[in-house]
Design goal:
Length: 174
């Protein structure tokens, strides 16, 4: 299977983001309630930021930069794996299980295709929604560190997590 092929879950299509998605990406990430939970995302967030993000993705691995859509709809968030699993979702779509579903789809694809046995991720202290997504996937805590949140312009505590292929499979995945 092509690692960059679109992935389908029960309710979502995960597909590589394109320049056509820039207005949707800007609309979601220009919301401080979204950007404050991310490390490298600026606030305010504009078109030039989104163009830089897409240029960055062109140089990344085959599992990074999947836009979440409900069929042919606009991108409502992004999930990807480079050195770790990262994601964001527009506030209008919070609380509906979309990110857990999308991350499950991508993590399953990652373990099926990559040959890697371990995956890292993390969340900012206080981000209970992100902590919940990672817990549902089977990630386990491995420590914490101080990182900079560009949108906040401050250091925050990142709770680091890891997921092994064995733990993923033991949970009935794979």
């Amino acid at each position: 299977m092509d690692p960059r092929a679109a992935l389908r879950t029960e309710r979502l299509v995960l597909r590589p983001v394109t320049r056509d998605d820039i207005p949707d990406i800007v609309a979601v990430l220009n919301d401080y309630e979204v950007s404050k939970w991310l490390t490298v995302v600026a606030h305010p967030y504009g078109r030039a930021d989104a163009e830089g993000f897409l240029s960055y993705l062109e140089k990344r691995g085959p599992f990074d930069g999947y836009g979440l859509t409900t069929g042919g709809g606009p991108v409502m968030g992004v999930v990807g794996i480079d050195t770790s699993l990262g994601y964001w979702l527009g506030r209008a779509h919070h609380g509906q299980g979309y990110m857990t579903e999308a991350a499950q789809g991508l993590v399953g694809h990652y373990f099926a295709v990559s040959g890697n046995d371990r995956l890292k991720s993390g969340y900012f202290e206080g981000n209970t929604a992100s902590a919940g997504v990672l817990a549902k996937l089977g990630f386990r805590p491995v420590g914490a560190e101080r990182v900079t949140s560009r949108a906040r312009g401050a250091e925050v505590t990142m709770k680091n997590m890891t997921l092994s292929r064995a733990n993923w499979t033991a949970r009935g995945n794979g």
